[in-house]
Amino acid sequence: MYYNWKKTTNTDELKVICNLIKNGELIIFPTETVYGIGANALDSKAVGKIFLAKGRASDNPLIVHIANKDSIDKIAEDITDVENKLIDTFMPGPFTIILKKRKDVIPDNVTCGLDTVAVRMPRNIIAKTIITFSGVPIAAPSANISGKPSGTNIEDIRKELESKVSAIIDGGDSEIGLESTVVKVIDEVPVVLRPGKITPEQIREVIGDVRIDNNVFGKIKNDEKVESPGMKYKHYAPVTKCELIYGEDERDLVFEISKRVRKFEGNIVVIGFKEHRKDIRISEERFLGIASNNNLEDYGKNIFSALRKADKIGANLIVIEGVKKEGLGIAIMNRLLRTCDYNYFECST
Ligand code: TXA
Ligand code: MG
Predict the structure, then answer these.
(1) How far is residue 55's CA from residue 306's CA, in Å, rounded to a whole number?
(2) Strands 63-65 and 138-139
């Protein structure tokens, strides 16, 4: 069933949606980051359906979504001062914290047998309402087939997942477009396992210290032990081969991209900042300008839908303009490096 939230003003429909969750069905719902594909986090059978629907590896744990801070104590324990400070500062919001898991509440398939649990409290009003009225925590990964870009708009999601869930709730395009910042506190230092809208700098301001996990930009070796299992897997990738290009100097960067457009034998699509199209010398049909004037918020918001669009144009190569690894740029580059499977070129100045 498809529900447009703006028109779902009557409580009967909300009841239907929440009953689906209570009864162990899957629903797709919006959050401020990306859409989630959710199930009752207390029901291991329902959670199993998420893994099946996404084709997700069984050792990649899920985030548990809650609607208020009191719920955290029900699923996690031994919360430290540093963790509490992060929770108080960044929740609700685009922030996930890995905590020590309380025994016998959240089933093992949510956390894939780990003794930790990922907890997130979305600030999106639709997500909040559904969690509150369902009366249970909701386990939810991003709404996409595993390995594909996360779902940030309803058309993409319906095409990919509609047949696999009991309800889809349309809340418009995702506000942020990149998944939440995932943090684990290790020896009292917050470690960013996955960068997002909440930046390492913001975390440092609150705690006085922060670390970015090596795997955020590095390529993971086959047998390497990682803090966050999701980092091991192929991610955010269109079918078409991609190349990521960045240069501190904008002219160098534009020159490198235009060189590829001239020399590549085959169809090329470029994703970049609108102002650069003319200098790259590419036709409008093959250029996806997803933001203006170095606006990283817009770049992050539109990148996943652009990757899907670029795939549909039917190119042999997608060239993506990179951004500076600073602020939100850290999250954008983390996703794009994986999108391109580390096929990355940096212009030297
Ligand atoms: O913004 C988001 O976080 C979205 C929305 C729907 O909330 N969700 C999302 O979930 O991106 P997913 O499953 O696509 O990504 C969750 C990431 C994965 O990389 C997973 O490995 C990691 O969080 N994770 C989950 N539980 C963990 C744990 N106990 N320890 C370490 N990493 C964990
Ligand atoms: Mg995901």
Answers:
(1) 23
(2) antiparallel
Do both 195 and 283 map to the same domain? no
Q: Are 156 and 13 in the same domain?
A: yes
Report the nearest-CA residue for atom 31 of ligand 1: 228
How far apart (Å, rounded) are the C-alpha atoms in residues 225 and 159?
35
CA distances from 7 to 28, 151, 266 (A): 17, 22, 45
Q: For the chain, what percent of residues have pLDDT higher than 70?
A: 99
Co-location of 206 and 261 in the same domain:
no
The pTM score is: 0.96
Residue 98 and residue 34 share a domain: yes
Segments in the chain below pLDDT 70: 7-10
Ligand 1: residue of 33, 34, 63, 101 to mutate (most ligand atoms within 8 A of CB) is: 63
Evaluate: CB of 60 within 6 angstroms of ligand 1. yes
Ligand 1 within 6 A of CB of 200: no
215's tokens = 């795997």
Greatest Cα-to-Cα distance within the chain, rounded to the nearest angstrom: 61
Host domain of residue 118: 2-216
pLDDT tens for residues 293-349?
899 999 999 999 999 999 999 899 999 999 999 999 999 999 999 999 999 999 987
Residue 227 has a pLDDT of 85
AA identity, residue 49: K
Total domains in the chain come to 2
| 70 & 199 share domain | yes
pLDDT score for 218 = 86
Please check whether residue 321 is in contact with residue 339, taking contact to mean a CB–CB distance below 8 angstroms.
no
User: Is 25 a domain residue?
Assistant: yes
Instruction: Give me the pLDDT at residue 7, please.
Output: 66
